[in-house]
What does this fold into?
Amino acid sequence: METIVPVHPGLPLVGNTLAVARDPLGMFTRLHRQYGRVVRINIGGRNQYMVFQPEDVKYVLQENHRNYGRSPAFRVLKRFLGEGLLTSDGDFWRHQRRLAQPAFHRQKITLLASTMVQESAAWVAELGQSDLSGPINISQALMDVTMRIVCKTLFSTDASHRLNGLSHSLETLNVLANKSLLSPIKWPTSWPTPNNRRYAKARKQVDDLIYGFIASRKQTGTRHDDLLDMLLYAEDEEAGDSPNRRMPEQQLRDECVTLFTAGHETTAVSMAWTLYLLAHNPASLERLQAEVAGVLGTVKTEEGALPPVEAFRAMPYTLQVVQESMRLYPPAWAMSRMALADDHIGPYRIPKGDTVVVSPYLLHHDPTNWPDPERFDPDRFAPGADAGRPAYAYLPFGGGPRLCIGNQFALMEMQILLALLVQSFDIHLVDKKPVRPQPLITLRPSRPIRLQLTARPTAP
Ligand code: HEM
It folds into this structure.
């Protein structure tokens, strides 16, 4: 039997937009408590169905995923990312995903991970040489190193001289995309509004860089074991001898920009939260350092050589710390889909064209599946601790066929960065004021996280 979806009251014309814009996490948390399973709200003139229960989330993302396409929210991202993996849909997306998937197989990740070890070790060494007499802005430092890692693994290039400009462009794009999502008035993108002008400038800066990488690779023809090569030489078996066997330039640009954007900011933000949590939880930090010392202290390497990638796979507690950090602060805090045809989620009717919103943040803070949910406790991810927990109660990387293609890449990168950093440094919070999560496209700290690093006596 059909049940009417409860509707949360809002203001005339703007619906619930202002309340959501003011405090999205607070508002969503209240809606979850009040309605429990599903509620309809109105944001920016559109009906949105929030689904709160893991089994309903599984239904949308996995069981009936063909009925749930990219929502209008993705149009904003499309302006920048084009028809890349994150924003495309339907058969076109399936085709692109098939082409890109081999680049993320386990052996390929292992290969890319040795680059991660080199870059992370160089970064930690540079930190050690820098002036550590006062606190450092670790958020910015992580943005730089994850950018370096993505440049090396994607393009085998060191673009560090352009890093500052780029971080700033991506920041601009993030803030503008978010503003545009919440605004009920959509100015045409061709109008020379200040926001559109800033957006175009930021986009051009990123495009110049990416097209430059593609052009120089095509010119030299040199082969590299990086993600760009995998995309350049990926072939569509079904295209026969047609010139479309390989990705056209524009598509290459879209996929590169997508991997580049999706691949660095999320990881940097997540790492910053992880260090923030560890600075608050010295017992966990100590246990982590003991694990790292136990593994890295015993691997046999030649004098001055870096530890092998396998060593980082033998650090279960390091992984648990990262997983717990992404539970408390999932960088992708909300995801949305559009119903392509009328459907039912349980007894609730979802009309064609309306949006369904899933929030990993709410799922991860639900006391039903996470007792004492605000407490940082990496043992929630100890072997066997997930018995009885629904699979979709935890989805930092999404779920179903659109699961993050870079999830293994990201976990590996975070484990490596974290292990090498805490091996060399103790970390302390200087500013005791709590940092709040600020939900833009990603869940960022409300202000940059500043930490005091002190070299450890046992550091290499
Ligand atoms: C902590 C780091 C990361 C987090 C939390 C994260 C999270 C996510 C989530 C939740 C989705 C699904 C979005 C949806 O279904 O609407 C996604 C998709 C995606 N992610 Fe990640 N991601 C991370 C790192 C990366 C990395 C390192 C890469 C690439 C190198 C990457 C590339 C992508 C791509 C291409 C998609 C679209 C996949 C598709 O739809 O086929 N991500 N990510």
Summary: Residues 85-86, 97, 258-259, 262-263, 266-267, 270, 331-332, 335, 396-398, 402, 404-406, 409-410 surround protoporphyrin IX containing FE (CB under 6 Å). The longest strand covers residues 38-43.
